[in-house]
Specification:
Blueprint: H1 2-44, H2 48-63, H3 65-74, H4 83-105, H5 132-135, H6 141-151, E1 158-163, H7 169-180, E2 187-192, H8 198-209, H9 222-232, E3 237-242, H10 245-250, H11 254-270, E4 276-283, H12 290-297, E5 306-308, H13 314-328, E6 331-332, H14 334-345, H15 355-366, E7 375-376, H16 378-384, H17 390-400, H18 405-417, E8 419-420, E9 425-426, E10 430-431, H19 432-438, H20 445-455, E11 463-469, E12 475-481, H21 486-494, H22 498-517, H23 528-536, H24 547-582, H25 585-602, H26 606-618, H27 622-629, H28 638-648, H29 654-669, H30 674-695, H31 698-709, H32 714-730, H33 734-749, H34 753-771, H35 777-792, H36 799-822, H37 825-836, H38 841-856, H39 861-867, H40 874-889, H41 894-905
Parallel strand pairs: 1-4, 1-5, 2-3, 3-4, 6-7
Antiparallel strand pairs: 8-9, 10-12, 11-12
Helix pairs in contact: 2-4, 13-14, 13-15, 17-21, 18-20, 18-21, 22-23, 25-26, 26-27, 26-28, 27-28, 28-29, 28-30, 29-30, 30-31, 30-32, 31-32, 32-33, 32-34, 33-34, 33-35, 34-35, 34-36, 35-36, 36-37, 36-38, 38-40
């Protein structure tokens, strides 16, 4: 059983190992994907510091001298001189730029003048329920009494509070009516309308403010909701729906508004006796939207159901300033304030004062740095610059407190994201996540969080935090624009040149129509500058009904930019590769070849042409070498032709090499000088032989034989035949090798002793060397005997005797190699007979020394010692014995010692 379990265990281990590798690959891919997303996020973001540091790291990683040097080595080139210095300079400069960018964006600690807890000065935020006592002093007593009296009347069921933006409707409802109704024995539920479904908003408000015991079972439909709320207490219930214009803004289609209006119809027509009253608050410019609801309800508003909240008269505004100054313990110059309100703060149109202007002016006065400047007097008022453009100055002054332009722009973009510029109203309550989605590509999450924190600060309060419940009834916190009166000022401040925003909007409208009219032709896509202008002011643009088409046009233009950027990047890469390639040795070598081809076809200097041909030979371009050689008129060009033939023998392409050698043969046959022709033909025959040996192709050797047999000079022919025979021997074709060697011997025998003794000796030495390569000992011995006869037939004294000795020396060496490889004593005996037949002791000693060198590798000390007895002198015998001892003691020195002695002999 254990033997059977082993394979399963091994397979299990392999599966575990395989799954482990798969998991590692998956993690690597996920990490790579996250890294790529992070890089794209950084590149698309606005944080310059991170971009510069990313660039610095990328430059250091790719272009540092070590890595970049290795890249250039692949192209066979080197970095420019002083590259390391310039690289360090660039890396340092980018890092310094990143440090400067970080320093400029670093927030500066400034003392906060937090006015958030002040009860009298609210800025752009409304008064709340906790400010009820103070609100009774702010000149709304009569309006509040009239409204409360009408609502608490027994016949009141539905009414509207309207007024211009900035007239204080929310403050009136939260700080005035909401606390006052319980005094009139009425319950009140305050609902702030946002982008949420109003039915769900009413439900959440009832659950929070009336606190029914069983919240989970509280009804979902509006009529049932009202019935359940009425059962909680016998007092009548007043439901205040504040900022109902948000309902119309976020539901522009009639079908989207139908469910709520239908529920209102059920309440109004079917629950007549139910003690539930509804008061809605609406901006004056949205008042006509109520017609849709009124028609369905079948109800027309009378004077006791419609309340209009007006601005303040100058005297009322001056009294409000007095109350604020008293509450905040600020100096108050009554005479100046009354004159200032009447002459400057009051509108030139109707002579009334907006509550927003009162609060903004008070906010700016209370926010002055020095205590003496926080006063309602003429000096402070002049320092503020008067009331002209009060809201715009208020917004500008608030934004100027941001430390950097980047932070100011972030704050403006968040304010714009909370604004619906198409409808000139607030965009509703948006959470941080929703703002991030809306501003994706314009601001990073950290920039958005920083802007939200600053804008909602107590000393700024340009946005207000709002808590609401989501679809899962979980409470979440969002933010909304502090007041709609900010929107005109925000439009003007958002871009330093509002005309650019207008131009961008007009361009977008015109180009969209042209693009759609032309079947979306690419010629109407935006240029980079046009696209940049539109994207810069996209928060200020009223997109209208064609928003989808406009977005599609911008996206198509963006895609074209991406293609162009990709093309530019590719061109840059190609230029870079081209630069590397141009400076690489390979390219420069090609340029040299090109120039040499030009010179080879135009020059007439034989020496230069010969050198060019040799250069092409060594570069492996034999055809070009032949073309250049054909222009050489001097017969000495045979040496170049020989080099060409030898280079062809090194080609690995048999077909090409064969064709080239045929051309070389034709070229050699055209040589007029016979000696040069013979010299060239021998080289060609040997090249054929080498090529045939390399390719193991007998056809090439046959061509080599034909070329050799065409040689007219016996010594050159004999040498060529012996070389071919050696190639046959290496291919184990002993028969053909023997035939060629026999022919070579006969050819050598025909050489005249007197005139060509050196040539005959050279030929016999080459023949002897080739014979030693035969695998057939008997055939080799016979051929050596024939060669020996030819050598012994050489006659002469002095120098001629030395040639004979050289030939016999080579033959004896071949005998020794044969004897050594076969351990044949008879061959050794023949060798010594040749030695004894030599004319001089010097020649005999030379042959013996050569044989000793051959036998040293065998390390047969006995036979080596016997060999030394044949030397002619005691000194020679001593040298031979010394060599034997060295070989026995240090075998590794045999080759080196032998090479040294051969050098001495030469």
């Amino acid at each position: 059983m254990p033997d059977q379990e082993a394979p399963k265990s091994e397979s299990t281990e392999k599966l575990v190992e395989g799954s482990g590798k798969t998991e590692a690959i998956r993690k690597s891919v996920e990490e790579s994907d996250k890294f790529v997303e992070w890089v794209v996020k950084v590149l698309r973001g606005k944080k310059l510091t991170t971009k510069l540091l990313l660039l610095d790291v990328a430059l250091f990683t790719v272009f540092n001298p070590v890595v970049f040097g290795k890249i250039l080595e692949a192209f066979d080139t080197k970095p420019p001189q002083h590259y390391a210095f310039y690289f360090s300079l660039v890396i340092g400069a980018v890092f310094v730029a990143a440090a400067i960018a970080a320093w400029r964006t670093q927030p500066k600690d400034k003392p906060r003048r937090d006015l958030a807890e002040r009860s009298a000065i609210k800025g752009l935020l409304p008064y709340g329920k906790d400010d009820a006592t103070l609100f009774t002093q702010l000149q709304r007593e009569q309006d509040l009494a009239t409204c409360a009296e009408a609502i608490t009347a027994s016949d009141f069921r539905f009414g509207v509070l309207c007024g211009e933006s900035g007239n204080g409707k929310t403050s009136f409802l939260q700080a005035g009516l909401w606390p006052k109704l319980p005094e009139q024995k009425h319950r009140c539920v305050y609902v702030k309308c946002t982008e949420l479904d109003p039915i769900e908003a009413i439900r959440q408000a009832i659950l929070e403010q009336l606190a029914p015991s069983d919240k989970a079972q509280f009804p979902l439909s509006l009529p049932e909701m009202f019935e359940a709320a009425a059962r909680l207490d016998s007092k009548p219930l007043v439901v205040i729906l504040d900022q109902l214009e948000q309902f119309f803004v976020h539901r522009p289609r009639k079908k989207d508004r139908a469910p709520f209006i239908a529920a209102m119809e059920v309440w109004f027509k079917q629950q007549v006796t139910l003690p539930v009253k509804i008061l809605i608050s609406l901006r004056s410019d949205f008042l006509d939207r109520l017609i849709e609801m009124q028609k369905l309800l079948g109800y027309s508003l009378g004077p006791h159901q419609s309340f209009r909240l007006e601005k303040f008269a100058p005297a009322q505004a001056a009294e409000i300033f007095r109350v604020i100054a008293e509450q905040e313990k600020l100096e108050y110059d009554s005479g100046f304030v009354e004159k200032m309100v009447a002459d400057q703060l009051a509108s030139a149109t109707d002579g009334l004062v907006s509550p927003v202007d009162i609060q903004v002016l008070a906010w700016m006065i209370a926010g002055q740095k020095l205590k003496e400047e926080r006063a309602f007097n003429e000096k402070t008022f002049r320092n503020l610059g008067g009331v002209e453009g009060l809201l715009e100055r208020f917004l500008t002054r608030a934004l100027d407190a941001r430390e950097t332009e980047q932070r100011r722009q972030a704050a403006v973009k968040v304010l714009l994201a909370l604004t619906d510029l198409d409808r000139n109203t607030r965009a509703g309550v948006l959470t941080k996540t929703e703002l991030e989605e809306k501003l994706q590509g314009h601001l990073s999450p950290s920039e958005i969080a920083d802007a939200i924190e600053w804008l909602s600060r107590g000393d700024v309060r340009l946005i207000a935090p709002v808590k609401r419940k989501n679809a899962d009834s979980k409470e979440i916190e969002g933010h909304e624009l502090a007041h709609e009166r900010l929107i005109p000022a925000l439009r003007r401040i958002a871009g330093k040149q509002l005309s650019d925003a207008d131009r961008a909007e007009q361009l977008l409208d015109r180009r969209t129509n042209e693009w759609l009219g032309s079947g979306r032709h690419s010629r109407y896509l935006f240029s980079w500058a046009e696209s940049r202008l539109i994207n810069k002011h996209r928060q200020l643009i009223a997109w209208g009904k064609e928003r989808q088409a406009k977005e599609a046009l911008l996206a198509a233009s963006q895609r074209r930019f991406y293609w162009r950027y990709a093309t530019a990047g590719l061109v840059t890469v190609l230029v870079f590769i081209g630069w590397i390639g141009w400076n690489s040795n390979a390219w420069q070598t090609w340029l040299i070849k090109r120039d040499l081809r030009s010179y080879g076809s135009s020059l007439n200097a034989n020496f230069a042409l010969g050198l060019i041909a040799q250069a092409f030979v060594y570069a492996g371009d034999s055809p070009q070498a032949l073309q250049v050689w054909n222009r050489i008129s001097d017969d000495s060009s045979v040496y170049t032709l020989r080099a060409i033939a030898e280079s062809i023998a090194k080609l690995n392409d048999k077909e090409q090499a064969s064709m080239l050698l045929v051309e070389v043969v034709k070229t050699a046959q055209s040589i007029s000088n016979n000696d040069s022709k013979v010299y060239a033909l021998r080289a060609i025959a040997e090249s054929y032989a080498k090529l045939g040996e390399t390719m193991k192709d007998s056809k090439l050797l046959t061509e080599a034989v034909k070329t050799a047999q065409s040689i007219s000079v016996d010594d050159e022919k004999a040498v060529a035949l012996s070389a071919i025979a050696a190639s046959y021997a290496k291919l184990n074709d002993t028969k053909q090798a023997k035939t060629l060697l026999a022919e070579a011997v006969k050819t050598a025998e025909r050489i005249s002793d007197a005139s060509y003794a050196p040539s005959k000796a050279y030929a016999l030495k080459a023949i002897a060397a080739s014979i030693a390569k035969l695998n057939d000992k008997e055939q080799a011995s016979m051929l050596l005997a024939e060669a020996a006869k030819a050598a012994q037939s050489m006659s002469g004294e002095g120098l001629l005797s030395n040639y004979k000795a050289d030939a016999l020396h080579a033959i004896a060496a071949s005998y020794a190699k044969l004897a050594e490889s076969s351990n044949d004593r008879a061959l050794y005996a023949q060798t010594f007979r040749f030695i004894e037949g030599l004319d001089s002791d010097e020649n005999r000693d030379k042959v013996l020394s050569s044989i000793l060198s051959i036998k040293l590798a065998a390390a047969d000390v006995g036979s080596l010692r016997k060999l030394t007895s044949h030397f002619s002198s005691e000194a020679k015998k001593a040298q031979a014995l010394a060599r034997i001892l060295i070989a026995v003691s240090r075998p590794e020195l045999i080759g080196k010692k032998q090479g040294d002695e051969n050098d001495q002999e030469r």
